[in-house]
């Protein structure tokens, strides 16, 4: 999947499940780009801005796709070093609401 396709998918999931009110989350895929969810306004905005966020999840694009498909357990991925969290760890724990 391309970054645009993943962004579109996440945009649909956020529309269906909501964002994390008043917060920003960024999934950073290294050289493959980033997806940012900005829930500070009335409606959550999903874009590819690589700007500051309350919580940044660093993960490879391949591992993200596996996690979003339910084939990679987020806790196991974090414990094995496939996911690195910067910022609000409590916010990271709520991301299942967006991804599922």
Supply database-style keywords.
single chain, 100 residues, Nonspecific Lipid-transfer Protein, Chain A
CATH homology superfamily name: SCP2 sterol-binding domain
Largest sheet: 5 strands, mixed
Regions with pLDDT < 50 over 5+ consecutive residues? none
Q: What strand line-up does the widest sheet have?
A: 3-2-1-4-5
SS element count, helices: 5
Number of domains: 1
CATH architecture: 2-Layer Sandwich
Shape: globular
Radius of gyration: 12 Å
Number of strands: 5
Walk me through what this model shows.
This protein has 100 residues and is an alpha+beta fold. It has a single domain, classed as SCP2 sterol-binding domain (Nonspecific Lipid-transfer Protein, Chain A). It has five helices and five strands, in the order H-E-E-E-E-H-H-E-H-H.
Question: Secondary-structure blueprint of this entry?
Answer:
Layout: H1 3-17, E1 24-28, E2 34-38, E3 45-47, E4 55-58, H2 61-68, H3 74-79, E5 84-87, H4 89-93, H5 96-99
Parallel strand pairs: 1-4
Antiparallel strand pairs: 1-2, 2-3, 4-5
Question: Quick summary of this structure?
Answer:
The protein is α+β, with helices and mostly antiparallel strands and 100 residues long. 38% of the residues lie in helices and 21% in strands. The longest helix has 15 residues, at 3-17.
């Amino acid at each position: 999947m391309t970054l645009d396709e993943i962004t579109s998918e996440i945009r649909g999931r956020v529309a269906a499940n909501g964002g994390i009110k008043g917060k920003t989350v960024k999934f950073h895929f290294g050289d493959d780009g980033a997806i940012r969810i900005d829930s500070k306004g009335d409606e959550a905005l999903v874009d590819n801005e690589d700007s500051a966020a309350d919580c940044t999840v660093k993960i490879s694009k391949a591992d993200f796709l596996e996690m979003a498909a339910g084939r990679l357990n987020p806790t196991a991925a974090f414990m094995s070093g496939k996911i690195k969290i910067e910022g609000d760890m409590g916010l990271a724990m709520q991301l299942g609401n967006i991804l599922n």
